[in-house]
């Protein structure tokens, strides 16, 4: 298989947790392409897509938020053909989306995927199961994207004392039995397929000076795999840092949602450009994307043109 040729660049729009807002994600990606004149090679989404084909499987948090904002249930319009999904996924500037599992998903549904596969009739929205990779191949350019979804257990390390050890064992038992978690055993036996990824998407973030509440095990995973770029969400925190040990670029994103004034939250998406020699990431803001200030929760669906 061919590899990226020198001076050949791929561009991706990267999104934090979208919680059902697939239509908003595609609106932004299409508008950005129209404004910039740059073609996107894909959309990267770091989990909490809110993949709930069966509404009876909604978790309590998603139910609560959906009562205030029905966009939380947006997956319903995309896993089958509907007038809304047709508008977006048949659009000539609709890139393929690659996403990983978060902690607010239908895990029985996503657990049925053992290999990367599309969840929609058009083959445009691809789920990447844990420890799997996809290769984005365009004009003899190939980029490997790996996935490791879920969140860490509530306690990743065993402290001294019987009470602390019991608490740790209980946390590990829960993480091994509940699919929203990953466990330290998974990290210790990570698939060798992930050893050569260019981009690693996780849902949770690694522990770092910028994210002291991050996962110790994900910090170890990044050090082990040394991807060129690491993308994550989950924490409601915007992070942009170069790893001093691995030289990986680490980017944490906010949730893609509107604030109380109905305006887009900043830090929820950006553009990743990557070539054999260089990579860069830029968060999109009103300064770099003037139409930003014209987008609100009520009008965004009316902004798409063919």
> What is the rounded Rg?
19 Å
Q: Provide a count of the helices.
A: 7
DSSP summary, beta strand count: 13
Helices and strands: which structural class? Answer: alpha/beta
Proportion of residues in helical segments: 10-25%
How many strands, what sense, and barrel or not for the largest sheet?
A: 7 strands, mixed
Element pattern in H and E: EHEHHEHEEEEHHEHEEEEE
**Could you give the distance between the termini?**
34 Å
Strand content: 15-25%
Global geometry: globular
Strand order of the largest sheet: 4-5-3-2-1-12-13
What's the mean pLDDT score? 90
Low-confidence stretches: none
Please describe what this structure looks like.
The protein has 306 residues and is an alpha/beta fold. Helix content is 22%, strand content 19%. The chain has helices spanning 22-36, 60-68, 83-89, 107-110, 162-177, 184-188, 216-225; strands at 10-15, 42-45, 97-99, 117-118, 125-127, 133-138, 141-148, 199-202, 229-232, 239-242, 249-252, 269-274, 279-283. A 7-stranded mixed sheet has the order 4-5-3-2-1-12-13, with no helix packed on it. It has a 6-stranded mixed sheet with strand order 6-7-8-9-11-10, with no helix packed on it. A hairpin with a 6-residue loop joins strand 10 (239-242) and strand 11. The protein is globular and about 60 Å long. 41% of the residues are buried.
Comma- or semicolon-separated keywords:
7 helices; alpha/beta; globular; 6-stranded mixed sheet; 13 strands; 306 residues
List the helices and strands and how they pair.
Layout: E1 10-15, H1 22-36, E2 42-45, H2 60-68, H3 83-89, E3 97-99, H4 107-110, E4 117-118, E5 125-127, E6 133-138, E7 141-148, H5 162-177, H6 184-188, E8 199-202, H7 216-225, E9 229-232, E10 239-242, E11 249-252, E12 269-274, E13 279-283
Parallel strand pairs: 1-2, 2-3, 3-5, 7-8, 8-9, 9-11
Antiparallel strand pairs: 1-12, 4-5, 6-7, 10-11, 12-13
């Amino acid at each position: 298989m061919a590899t990226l040729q020198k001076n050949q660049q791929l561009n991706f729009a990267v999104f934090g947790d979208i919680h059902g807002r697939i239509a908003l994600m595609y609106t932004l990606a299409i508008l950005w392409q129209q404004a910039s004149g740059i073609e996107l090679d894909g959309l990267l989404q770091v989990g909490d897509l809110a993949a709930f084909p069966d509404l009876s499987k909604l978790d309590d948090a998603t139910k609560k938020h959906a009562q205030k904002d029905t966009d939380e249930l947006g997956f319903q319009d995309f896993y089958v053909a509907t007038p809304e999904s047709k508008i977006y996924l048949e659009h000539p500037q609709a890139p393929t989306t690659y996403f990983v599992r978060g902690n607010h998903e239908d895990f029985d549904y996503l657990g049925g995927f053992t290999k990367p596969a599309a969840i929609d009739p058009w083959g445009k929205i691809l789920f990447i199961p844990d420890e799997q990779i996809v290769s984005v191949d365009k004009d003899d350019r190939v980029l490997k994207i790996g996935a490791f979804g879920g969140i860490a257990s509530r306690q990743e390390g065993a402290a001294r004392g019987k009470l602390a050890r019991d608490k740790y064992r209980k946390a590990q038992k829960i993480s091994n039995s509940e699919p929203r978690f990953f466990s330290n055993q998974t990290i210790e036996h990570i698939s060798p397929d992930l050893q050569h990824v260019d981009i690693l998407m996780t849902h949770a973030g690694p522990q770092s000076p910028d994210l002291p509440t991050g996962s110790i095990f994900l910090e170890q995973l990044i050090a082990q795999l040394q991807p060129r770029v690491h993308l994550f969400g989950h924490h409601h925190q915007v992070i942009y840092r170069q790893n001093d040990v691995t030289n990986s670029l680490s980017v944490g994103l906010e949730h893609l949602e509107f604030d109380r004034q109905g305006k887009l939250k900043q830090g929820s998406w950006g553009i990743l450009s990557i070539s054999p020699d260089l990579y860069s990431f830029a968060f999109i803001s009103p300064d770099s994307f003037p139409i930003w200030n014209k987008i609100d929760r009520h009008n965004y669906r009316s902004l798409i043109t063919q």
